[in-house]
TrEMBL record:
Additional observations: Carbon 2 of the heme B porphyrin ring is defined according to the Fischer nomenclature.
Enzyme class, first EC level, given as a word: transferase
Organism encoding this protein: Methylophilus aquaticus
Biological classification of the source: Bacteria, Pseudomonadati, Pseudomonadota, Betaproteobacteria, Nitrosomonadales
EC number in record: 2.5.1.141
Residues spanning the membrane: 27-45, 51-73, 94-115, 121-140, 147-165, 177-196, 217-237, 243-265, 277-297
Any Pfam family the entry gives: UbiA
Full protein name: Protoheme IX farnesyltransferase
Length: 298
């Protein structure tokens, strides 16, 4: 009897772990972080905790559901790539029906929370973001063009706009600047990974830039988008949205990013591409943290 209960508890824990993994938790965490900064930047003072809580939960649920839909649509290619083969759908630990139900309930709950406790504008923008990633990017762009992530990156860049809209019920130039930072950051972020994973993408027939146009062309594009990122990252300061603390942080973060990207362009290695990819995540986390610190301290 006791053994049966223990087994059932273990099975339930395993089930929860699988559904959690479907939400791509670490990516969703950074997405939600940028959304929260969008909320906090939207007001000179403190934002009401009810709006903060409802928006965070609503956006997190919608983002997790979008990731789960992506896993559902891509389970076959996920099963063929070393990086993704342990995902619960690829291993068969959760079924297609369970995933569909989970993603629908989670996404529906997220949108309902946003509509009811935040505002309809945020709900509609989040729905558009959801469709942009789960349908436009995953179904149409990803298998069709090496520019998939440039266009699809618009969905990943939306969270600060969602956060801003949650607080102000509007979209403003400051929110667009934060959008632009993530939008310009996405190509170096993804192509650094796609370079050292290019054989896997080629094997599953995904037309990622290193597969279709080769190493040197991809490196040049990483470099060009990083230059755009550097320019865009100074906009919060030049528009008077942020002060010296942000400026100093952006300079340091940009110098390091350019150092990696130029190094990669001159002497490519998988190890340096991996370091650049990892640094891209640190870069985005810190530049958004700097926006926030500057907002409250300077
Ligand atoms: C179309 C846009 C994007 C593409 C194609 C992309 C692609 C990827 C890929 C392929 C990985 C590796 C995941 C893994 O190994 O499981 C990854 C990791 C990651 N991405 Fe992105 N990404 C995009 C946008 C974003 C955005 C907008 C954010 C956050 C604001 C983000 C944050 C992260 C984080 C935190 C990781 C590390 C995950 C981990 O360590 O498990 N990405 N990205
Ligand atoms: C608020 C809201 C609805 C946000 C949705 C936007 C969203 C979840 C963007 C995530 C971007 C992402 C995980 C890209 C991974 O690329 P990939 O899917 O090509 O990577 P993979 O090869 O690891 O599956």
């Amino acid at each position: 009897m006791q053994t049966t209960i223990v087994t059932q508890v273990e099975a339930a824990k395993m089930g929860l772990r699988n559904f959690y993994a479907l939400c791509k938790p670490r990516v969703t965490a950074l997405i939600v972080f940028t959304a929260i900064i969008g909320m906090l930047m939207a007001s000179p003072g403190m934002v009401s905790w009810q709006i903060l809580l409802a928006s965070t939960v609503g956006i997190a649920f919608a983002s997790g559901a979008a990731a789960a839909f992506n896993c559902l649509i891509e389970h076959k290619i996920d099963a063929m790539m070393a990086r993704t083969r342990a995902r619960p759908l690829a291993t068969g630990q959760v079924s297609h029906m369970e995933t569909l139900l989970f993603a629908s309930v989670l996404g529906g709950a997220g949108l309902t929370i946003l509509y009811t406790w935040v505002n309809p504008l945020t709900m509609w923008l989040t729905l558009a973001t959801f469709v942009g990633y789960a349908v436009i990017y995953t179904v149409f762009l990803k298998p069709a063009t090496p520019m998939n992530i440039v266009i699809g990156g618009a969905s990943g860049a939306m969270p600060p706009i969602l956060g801003w809209a949650a607080v102000n019920n509007a979209v403003s130039p400051e929110a667009l600047v934060m959008f632009l930072i993530i939008f310009a950051w996405t190509p170096p972020h993804f192509w650094a990974l796609a370079l050292y994973r290019r054989e896997e993408y080629a094997k599953v027939g995904m037309p990622m830039l290193p597969v279709t146009h080769g190493e040197q062309f991809t490196l040049l594009h990483i470099l060009l988008y990083t230059v755009i990122l550097v320019l865009v990252s100074f906009m919060p300061y030049s528009l008077g949205m942020s002060g010296w603390l942000y400026l100093a942080s952006a300079i340091v973060l940009n110098v390091v990013f350019m150092y990696y990207v130029i190094g990669l362009y001159r002497h490519y290695s998988d190890a340096l591409a991996k370091t650049t990819f990892k640094y891209s995540i640190l870069y985005l986390s810190l530049i958004f943290a700097a926006l926030l610190l500057d907002h409250y301290l300077v």
